[in-house]
Structure prediction request, 470 residues.
Amino acid sequence: MNISIFGLGYVGCVGAACLAKLGHRVVGVDVNENKVRLINEGKPTIIEEGIAELCAEAHEKGLMSATMDVREAVHRTDVSFIVVGTPSSKEGHLNLNYIYAVAKQIGEALKDKTSAIGDCRLEIGNLKHIIAIRSTVLPGTNEKVGAIIAQASGLVRGKDFTIVSNPEFLREGTSVKDYFNPPLTLVGTDMPEAEAVFREIYKGIEAEFICTDIRVAEMMKYVNNTYHALKIVFGNEVGNICKELNIDSHKVMEIFCKDKQLNISPYYFKPGFAYGGSCLPKDMKALKTLAHDHYVEVPVIEAIGESNELQKRRAVQLIMAQGQRKVGILGLSFKSGTDDLRCSPIVDVVESLLGKGFEIRIYDKNVKVSELTGTNKDFIMAKIPHLQHFVTDDLEAVCRESDVLVVTNKEAEFADVLGRWPGKTVVDLVRQWKEVDYDGRYEGLSWGDVNANREGQEADVKRDFRQTEF
Ligand SMILES: NC(=O)c1ccc[n+]([C@@H]2O[C@H](COP(=O)([O-])OP(=O)(O)OC[C@H]3O[C@@H](n4cnc5c(N)ncnc54)[C@H](O)[C@@H]3O)[C@@H](O)[C@H]2O)c1
Prediction:
């Protein structure tokens, strides 16, 4: 395929040489004359293991060249990758000026590009060009770049051109190796034709090819890198505590990483409600206090509890924002299949709603108030002394008598709530339903609008939940 690459820095140079290695014909574009000259001499613009050999090989085969002429690059190619820098501003915002400048230039060049894409031999309608954003950009940038290109070219997105988001996952130092062995290949697009083109571009790369929503693709790089940073900081904080206690931190983390069921696994990673129960809050607090007692600062570990409290306040705010006073709580224990109420996060939510004068009905098939004993009973009686007035084992009655139904765990018996109770407002704290086709109002705690009937109601819900006091 014929590909132009805008930006011949770390990512652009590696991308150009690796795409040529995969058999594509690549034209690099940069505002830096020296980088353009280097590529035209078959030399890399950066130092990385293996890149010099790849550039020399691509040059010899006539598969890689560079230019400062945007129009020439756009007219000679079917796909343009944007790989210019996205530095931080002084205040920490992302500076997207280079991206927008390139978008405008590509748009102007597209104005008189006549040929439809031809070289890839795929069925792609009348598209004249596909633009791929490879730089790391915030969600919404794809749309903005599309608007800039449409305005500059006079062409129509989705008809004449399209823009995909194709984030880069390589790391400097091992970039060539990473390019050919990425954890996955990610393409965000709303056009199946563009997906087909990108499957063709990357067909020499074995990694799983994932095609997803544009905004999901745009978000991924930030989630990945923030998580990588979190891993480093967490490991360091554990190490610092271990050092004070004369414990070998590397042995600790090696064993930690061997647990592929709960530690290094998808478990606990789905957005949902706050954690609770008799272990997590207690043990988390104990480690934090241990660090404190040894004068070890652990700001990340300390922030975990506060973030968890925030999620409870968010639930309260979301329920309040529905503007209805009769609230049915479906599930009171800290997770399904138990009657353990200790540190159940929904108990704090109920306590807060009762304090604000909401009429509460609670259903939990496992919680029989008269049978509660020991620390379980002590905990709930300290929080909600008149619990017996609110709890029932009659799910139908709770649903019938409430305007808002709050689903707090994934008990199978709640699965048909939407079908059985059309018209009720449902607040889902656990993503009980992946997709919602509901004749009523549906609110997810940490996920967006999955119900078309909600239009115009977001504003109420977006009130500042941080102001909510328990
Ligand atoms: N460096 C990494 O390890 C890495 C990894 C993954 C993603 N990324 C992301 O990739 C993007 C590029 O990063 P980089 O490290 O390659 O940056 P870089 O600064 O090394 O390269 C950017 C290049 O873009 C060129 N450029 C600027 N304006 C231009 C224009 N109008 N037309 C053509 N070229 C222009 C610059 O001259 C420069 O050569 C960034 O968004 C970065 O966050 C970087």
